[in-house]
Amino acid sequence: MKHKTIIRLLIKLLGVFFLLNGVAGLLGAVTYFLVVLDDYSAVGESFYLAYPLSAAVGSGAALVAGLVMLLASNWLANALIPSNRPYCPNCGYELTGMRGNDCPECGVQLPQRHKQEIIAADQRPDTLPM
User: Fold this and answer.
1) What is the pTM of this model?
2) Do both 66 and 103 map to the same domain?
3) What are the residues facing 87 on neighbouring strands?
4) Domain encompassing residue 54
5) Domain boundary residue among 60, 80, 100?
């Protein structure tokens, strides 16, 4: 379970990086756009507008990616590293071989889905056949 926590933290850290990078890029694009409009009266020239528009689009994509990484880090970690053993949804305690309805570590009542995972995990062999 520790590896998932590390992955979650790395995803959140990467999300913060993308978020800050996106905000900085958007601010730079807006600043450049304002300077171009202030210095040049020829707004019709696409050369002066190409950079800030492309930077705004790229920075907006980085901003969205950062928000997704920050808000959905649990889902992303579970999608990247699926668990092959049942764990308590509250505290992360491994529940293989448990026979009760409550987690022995934190006492939370387990949903029916987790009870079925525990039964299925008990029926799987621990080692590969030789």
Assistant:
1) 0.59
2) no
3) 94
4) 2-80
5) 80
Distance from C-alpha of 77 to C-alpha of 3, rounded to nearest angstrom: 9
Show the tokens assigned to 8: 């979650």
* Claim to verify: residue 30 and residue 64 sit in the same structural domain: yes
User: Please, what is the end-to-end C-alpha distance for the chain in angstroms?
Assistant: 28
Distance from C-alpha of 72 to C-alpha of 76, rounded to nearest angstrom:
6
Sorted by sequence, the CB contacts under 8 Å of residue 2 that are 6+ apart come out as none
pLDDT digits (tens, 9 = 90+) for 64-113: 999 999 999 888 887 787 666 777 777 778 777 777 778 888 888 877 76
Instruction: Report pLDDT digits (tens) over 33-59.
Output: 787 776 665 555 656 677 778 888 999
Which residue type is seen at 109? Q
Whole-number Cα distances in Å, 21 to 25, 60, 76: 6, 10, 21
Q: Copy the structure tokens of residue 37.
A: 């409009």
Query: Which amino acid belongs to residue 81?
Result: I
Residue 29: what residue type?
A
